[in-house]
Every structure is written in structure tokens, then in C-alpha cells.
Amino acid sequence: MSDGGRWPGDETAPTEILPGAAAERRILAALAIVGRASLSADELAALSETDEVRPVIDDLERRGLIKRDEQKRYSATARVGQEIRKTDEALATGDRLLQYMTTLAKGGKLTPERLLEDAEAILGLSEWAGETGQWAALLELVKTLEACFSIAHRVDEWLTLLERGRSAARALGDRRSEIWVLQQMAAASASVGDTSAAQRYMREADELQRGPAPTARRVASTEQTVAAGTGAASRAPWIIGLLIAGVVGIGAGYALGSGGTDNVGETTARVPVTVTLPGQTITTSDTVTLPATTVISTTTEQTTTTVTATTTVTVVG
Hints:
With 317 residues, this protein is mainly alpha-helical.
């Protein structure tokens, strides 16, 4: 802490908080990235790319920029960490830290004992990656490290890491990876007997895997509509025939009911009939002379979805 009782950088820009030496900047950036978690001196040495890291650490601690815990691990002071977390130096160091943790896991060095110390730092790193939109790197980190949490039976941290991996998969539009993450979340929940959560995650994974394919469904629907229209069109002639026959019967009944054979003159009955079928409009006009039937004209049009049959019946007594 400074002589005035304030943390260094309280009244300065983030870039001014960072000391001049590259090793110092990288150490502070690495600690800012993991947030409230801590890193060991060996990890800080690897990230700062210097063999003589101890004097640098001691100097930063003396100046109140970092602090040491009982396990001799280091973390940035809250104020300094917040100021540095999104600087360009943090972005560059974050890439190195992501690669460092990934290499540990792939090399089999992230053992359950090691994870006991580094779990919080890994979660802090994953949180930072999400905050800064490093989605591809975050997803790769989750895929590489989640098995280590599984082996160590650190289920709470395992689920937290997987949830962040799911967010990364969604941000990337990677449905296959999201399905994989959900399956791992189901396994994590099942490992502690949480069958309800396990079933929920598996159901979500299954629904995502069998998810609707809108384009294919629209095509199928279109094909069904076309088929229905074709069938209706093929039925249209005999439907119209039935309508004409019915209208002729109506005309005959009308003529007979109006006076039978005793009436002399012309009797005309005009009966409109409308039938709705997909894709057609059919109009027909008939002139019928009783007792014989003579079809004068028939016209057919195909325009809309309505079939209209209009028949004119002429009865001569």
C-alpha cells in the first residue's frame, strides 16, 4: 500500500498500474485473470517466462500489488486485479495461461492432487475467457480439462466448468459440442446420485440431437400439399358430374311440381353449386330439356382453390 493509504493505481489508468518490466506485467496479468484464485510461484515463473521469478514476486508483494496465502500461493489485490483484467497484457497472458493449463492436462500432469490446488484458478480462467469472448479457446479448455475434474470427483467445479463450455458452444453455434457438454453434465450429476438433473440433461441433449429440421419439414409439408391437390384434381370431374346430375333432378322436380304436363311454356331453374377443392375453380353451364337432356356447353378454368358448378336447366312442357 502506498504512503497515502491507497492501493497503487487507485487514481491511475490500468496501463499505468502495470510495472515497466515484462515479467512483472505478466505476473500481475496472470493473477488478475484468475480473479480471487491463486497461482504458485512455479506457475508464475512459467507464465512470466523468466528463471528468476522470486525477486520479482517479492518486489510486487512488498509494493502491495500481490499477496501470499498460507500455501505460499499468490493472488492479485482486488483493486489491481479489476483494473488489469481486460488490458492487452491480460489478453496476451490469458492465451499463455490457457495453453499452459491445456498442456498440463494433455501431459497427464493435472492430477487430482494438483487439481486440488488449481481448480479455482482454472474456474477463474474459464470465467475470464467467457467475459472476453474467447469462446473457441474456452470450449477447447473445457473439453481438455473436464475429465480431470471427473477423475478427481470434484463435481461442483466440474459442472461449473461444463456450464461455461455449454455457453461457449452456444455462442459458437456448435450444436454437436453442446450435446456433448450436456451428456457430460448428465454423467456428473449421476455420479453424485442426482438422477433428476441427470435425466434433465440427457433429455435436453436428446431433444437437441433430434432437434427439428425446419427446412426438411417445410419440404415434406409442401409435398403433402401437392399430393393432396393432385388427388383433389383427379376427383373433380366425377364430383362435378354428381353435382350436375343432382341439379338436373332438382330441375325436373321443380318442373313437375309446378304443374306437370298440364303447363305449357318454358320453365327454367337456375341452381348454383359451389365445391371447394385445392387448386381449382371449375365452372360449368348446362341446358337440359325434359324428358331428354342436352348439354349445350361446358367450360373449365383452373385458377384458385374454389370449384364452382352452376347449372341452368330448361324445362319445356
